[in-house]
Every structure is written in C-alpha cells, then in structure tokens.
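Researcher: If convenient, please comment on what follows.
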Amino acid sequence: MDKIIRIGTRESQLALWQAHQVNDLLNAQGYKTTLVPIKSEGDIDLVTPLYEIGVQGIFTKSLDLALLNNRIDIAVHSFKDVPTQLPQQIVQAAVLKRGPVKDLLVYKNDTSFLDQPDYVANIATSSVRRKAQWLRKYPQHQLHNLRGNVNTRLQKLAAENWDGAIFAVAGLERINVRPANSIDLDWMLPAPAQGAVVAVCREDDTFCREACAAFNHAETALATAIEREFLRTLMGGCTTPISAYAHIDNNTVHFSGELCSLDGSRFFSISREVPATAAQHLGQSAAEEIMAQGGAELVAEIRNAG
C-alpha cells in the first residue's frame, strides 16, 4: 500500500470534516492518504442565489474536473450537492453511514413569532425546498437569500435584521457550531440524500474503488439511492422544491417524498412502505405516481418560470 490516495475536498470547515472522515476510514485500513483542498464555483460566488446560477453540480464540478484530470484520486461530497447523473468516467465508490437528516431554525431572540399569525417574520435560506415548505406553513413570512458556508451564514444571520435562518442539523452539529438558540424542524422534509457523505472516484481506478468499498454503508446507500431516484425521475434540480427521505427499519423501507410549488401553496406528497428486498425502483415509481397526479405540470411550470 505504498500508493498515496489523494482526497479532494472543498475548503470549508464542514467539507474538511467530511474529507477527514474518509481519510480516517482509509487510514484505519492501512492506506496512506493526503488531503487536497480545491475551490468550487459555489464557494466563490456567495451572492447569486443557487437557483439563479442554474449550474448542476455547482459544489462538485471543480472536484470532478480535478478527478478527471488526475489531480486527485477520490472526491468527497455532501451527497445532497451531487447531481443525480454523475459525469462519465466517475463512479460512486462509497456512502458513509448517515448523520442527522433534519433541518433546524436558528432564531435571533425567541420563537414566539412562530405563533403570531399576523407577524411578518424575516427568514433566511438559499434553498428553494426550504423556502417552499416554510411558506406553506407561514405564508405571511418574508424569505431572504443566504449563501456561503455554515460559519459565513451564521455570521450573516447575526449581522442582519432577520428573525431566523434555516440550516441542516448535520452541517452545524458536525463542526460543533449549533447555537443554543435553535430548534429542529420536525415537520420539514429533508432534501434527497441530506445528512449523507459520498466518496467518488474514477471508474477505472480499481485500487480506490476497492479501498472505499470496505466502508460503504449499505443501508445509507440504499436509502439515498431511493431518494435520488425520486429526484431524478421528477427531473428536479436546485430550482425545484423536491424533498425525499427513506430509512430502513426491520428490513422495511419507509419512504416519504414531496414536490412543491415555489410558494408552497401547491404540493404533491407520497408515502410508501415496502420490504427492503422489493425496494428497487421505489423512488422512480413514487415519482411517477406524483407526475401522474399533476406533478408533471407543476415541474413544467417551475421550469418555465425560471
């Protein structure tokens, strides 16, 4: 094992945390590794809303290019940032055991405004999924764009005259920056593959594929595959409010999926329970059912609006 595996990662604290997880798992098997930080387009432009940038893989593209150009051997991503169609010659090598999947609200003063139907709260998030679900529950609130890494967004929230901002639980807890003034949003359905970390490598790199296969977490891999298949079938990207969550309990897959209009006023949801052995194409069939119920027209409407 004299070969040194070069692990590509974005430079944010959270991305480095994720890369270190893969690094440690490889080291535990006796592999030699080194981290290679790489800037992504999503880290450089912190102003334009993600849905306006319109680029698939805004946070993964730079790492994919580094992988294809043989500057790195493995790229580590937050799985929810990865397009459902991987670039040619790049394959999914391992999915790590999933962390927390929920979203949370970091609030400035208190949460009493959530119970005041006439109060127009100012809430920040760059996610169209979070915006749509929030507006469905609180249609009178004003939503504001919030970009940047976790620490940047927390600083921005502190500086602005907002009531709160929405984050992923995993993002804050993994780097120990979750504020005390935060609450889990149990009613909010997460993004497909939220809370999961994936390692990808070149298709022809059998050395790295075998090295990563040893720490692939089968249940997380199955659950995220279902969620991403649901997303892919709905032809959703960063401009479409699509949520999905699958988990396995007693060899049964519990799946929930949702498609929303941008303002949250219209939505299609579906829940299914199937044996894990019969979960193949579960995401696709659930999405096709939503499309048949009117979801196809809503997706087309959202795309045309963009």
In short: The first helix runs from residue 13 to 28.
